[in-house]
Amino acid sequence: MPICLHYRDIIIKKKVMSMIRRKLQMPKRKVQNPNIRAIKLWHKLCPAYFPFMIIHSLFANLSPYFNIYLSAEIVNEIVGKRTVSTLITLVAITIGGNFLISIIGGMLSRGFKHQETLLNQKEADLFYQKTFTLDYEDLENTEVRQLRRKIAESAKIDAHGKQSLLINLNELSYCIINIVLSVYLFFEMIFLIISNEFDWLVVFFAILIILLILLNVWTSFIVKKNMAELSNEMSLSMIEENRIDDAIDCYNMGKDVRLYRQDKLIQKIQKYEFDLHKRSFRTYYTKSFWYHIPQTLFSIILQATVYLFICIYALKGVFGIGNIIKYVGFIQRIINAVIRMFNIGINIANNTPFVEDYLAFLDVKQKMAQGTRSLKEVCPNGSEYEIEFCDVSFRYPSSETFALQNISLKLKSGQRYAVVGMNGSGKTTFIKLLCRLYDPTEGAIKLNGVNIKSLDYNEYLAFFSVVFQDFKLFSFKLGQNVAAQSDYDKERVERCLKKAGFEERLAKMSDGTDTYLYRDFDENGVEISGGEAQKVALARALYKNAPFIVLDEPTSALDPIAEYDIYTKFNAIVENKTAIYISHRLASCRFCSEIIVFHEGKIVQQGSHKELIEEERGKYYELWNAQAQYYN
Predict the structure, then answer these.
(1) What is the rounded CA–CA span in Å between residue 579 and residue 596?
(2) Which of the chain's termini has less CB crowding within 10 Å, N or C?
(3) Spatial CA neighbour of 416 closest among 224, 609, 152
(4) Mean pLDDT for all residues in the chain
């Protein structure tokens, strides 16, 4: 693939991310610079960070200025009066001052690092909390996921994102304090020159130095402008390469890679991405070399002009030889600080789109009504309730077709329901609506006659224990996976695991419920089979002890004996809870009081197994016999 096509893809990616930011824009409000917004946000998260940054920059600047000033005084004394006591005093002040500045600077540096760590931790907490509290609709939204992934990837590179802005702000404070500290020495030098005699040469050199500084700034701007685009392109190619590396590091892929000989495919893709990165890398540093030549040239001329200016007036006797060290040093530092400030401004401007991405993600609003009514108010008894779907239709945000249409049914407390249907018939979507991960497009869902949108959202979510078909377990301790928290009742966890049929496997774990699942975080972690993972997921649902339990294909990975064991213990497992059981294995329908048959997003049948099996033209009869023929 030609590199021009690679750059075309990069341009397309940029346009896509720009479209995402526009699409995720919040209601109009007073426009504020994104960098200012980010600074205000971080100051609110960690109020001591920026004060520490400024004080730290002050002491970081003190040491060189202190040494420049005292070195000049020592040289002047050696060339001049040569008073031993004065020299000893100056040397002692230099050593003692450096020691004191070093001690205070070290303490401030540790304090600043602590504040930096604290800010990073709080900012990460904010970012993760935002992810956890996103509407499920947004969590499944491809555009939001792409935005979040881009922010996460840019965070790994100091040149982009939040970290880049913090680094540049730190350097900016250093440069500003550098300039402020130079003001005293600057006026001292000008005063000495003017008090001696007015000289147009001063004006000439001042104009020349200012012009050379502007040339340095201009060439720096051109270099930064050209290098920023190359840097972004190189970073994007690094992101793609890192994703492949992350996939290779996932040890769970090992079986498939070996059985299907995917290593050659992965190596080919990796080589392609590596070649793209290598070309970007070569282009970046080749152009960087040529771009920096004029900048380096102007910098050398500027430095030579400063030396010439200082030396001329030293030879005229305006100030001592030691002052050459002092004035050359501070002028060079102030020039570097001014040029660096302009560079920082360019860096911040180039980084602004990444900050906009960061803020755009944080600005994604919760559209789902959180509700205010207490569940206890609607269900005072707690164990008696009825959930009703009132002519509910639903389509996913990115789809034009309805996933569910005109669903009307009642779910009574304490009953057992089986939900069956072919793949894509709407079963899982029905559960998402029931658990209020989504709200209906049309119609309403009511609990004891009250629209669930008006109920406290977190209380309503606590009403359900669900084992989804695509459930996930974390590489945490077994007990933490079951309890979904770090502190838990160990005996209760063990009871739930026993109910779920995990007792035998638990007995083989030397650390019991403290055993880590998988080896991502602990080399002694254990690998569990798909069936065992389903049992842990079922135990997690039981530990939550919600009044309504939903099991979506909970036995799909179990062997026939384990599955039969779940079937025979089903009533004992769910106890007096309301239960919905979704399965393609229709044998599970026999222990449910009512069966709900979905087909193409609609409920086509509803009743007991005996009632539905007698309807020979019904969908349930068709599904039942399609499976039964393999057992005859």
Answers:
(1) 13
(2) C
(3) 609
(4) 81
